Amino acid sequence: MKPLLTCLFAVFAFCMVWGTADSWAATPPDRQIAITIDDLPAGAANSMSAAAITEMTAKLLATLRQQQIPVVGFVNEGKLYKWGEVDERIKALNMWLDAGFELGNHTFGHTSLNKAGLKDFEESVVRGETVTRLLLAQHKMKLRYSRHPYLDVGRDVETRRDAEAFLVARGYRLAPVTMEILLLHANPLEADHIGELLEQLRKRGYRFITLEDALSDQAYGMPDTYVGEEGTGWLEHWAITRGRPPLGAPVFPPAIAQPSKALPPHPGEAPAGGPANP
User: Fold this and answer.
1) Regarding predicted confidence, which is higher, 244 or 97?
2) Looking at residue 104, which CATH number applies to its domain?
3) What distance in Å separates the CA atoms of residue 30 and residue 220, rounded to the nearest whole number?
């Protein structure tokens, strides 16, 4: 009797798996993704002219508008202040709003909460919203989103919670990074190739949604007590909070990793392998 029961159970399990696989084939998963772009007006703004920033921005926005991709761009207002170019750089930032996109706060000086501490971080948030709030108001919009530079959320739980309370009091919703919320950067590489990336995502069955819609997922209400020396994505946050540190993280192929180390650092950052300055 026992072998018969085992056999029947195996047949039942096979039928369940077969039926589920057949159901998956008939109804493909609803893959959704929200696009966010950091370091506006440009990641390397300190080494770019205002004309170059404007050209890059126009190229990037043209693709996003043509493909009807909802985007939130996160601003470092400190990059607006270059002698003789302030007005033109602000105009480049305003191009995002004229094109129908939204702006968020990425702090004035790309300030790490972990390295600068709570007080300096809060000051950088406040300084980083002056121009952005004004531009948004001119488009009858409000400043709703904030993102931690380097994804640094704090070295200890008290600092993390204090920073979060400060952001909420100023009307912000924190923009995390997950498989559903993609973080890109404002740079010439993205401007040249974002169309190819969007095409690949569509081929994988993704449809593009707003950040607001993405954050409506109940997953973003899950317990999250992650703190650490370095920032990381929210999938890692949730796994570590549940006592299940993620394993098997992807490793960059040497053919990509080695040339990337030879690239010059972004303004305000140390060379690869050295400490970063916010």
Assistant:
1) 97
2) 3.20.20.370
3) 18
- What's the mean per-residue pLDDT of the chain? 87
- In angstroms, how far is CA 163 from the centroid of its own chain? 18
Which DSSP letter does residue 187 get?
A: S
Closest CA to 266 of 50, 93, 42, 88: 42
Tally of structural domains, the chain:
1
* Cα separation values, 171 from 40, 181, 217, 245, Å: 20, 20, 20, 32
Q: Does residue 37 fall inside a structural domain?
A: yes
Residue 2 forms part of a structural domain: no
Q: Is the pTM of this model over 0.85?
A: no
User: Can you give the residue range of the structural domain that contains 190?
Assistant: 31-246
Are the CB atoms for 173 and 210 separated by under 8 Å?
no
Residue 106: closest CA among 168, 149, 141: 149
Please check whether residue 44 lies inside any domain of the structure. yes
How far apart are alpha carbons 224 and 241 in whole angstroms? Answer: 6
Handedness of CA 33, 38, 44, 50 (dihedral sign): positive
- Average pLDDT value for residue range 107-122: 97
Domain assignment present for residue 15? The answer is no
Radius of gyration, CA atoms only, the chain: 22
Tell me: the pLDDT tens digits for 240-250? 999 987 776 77
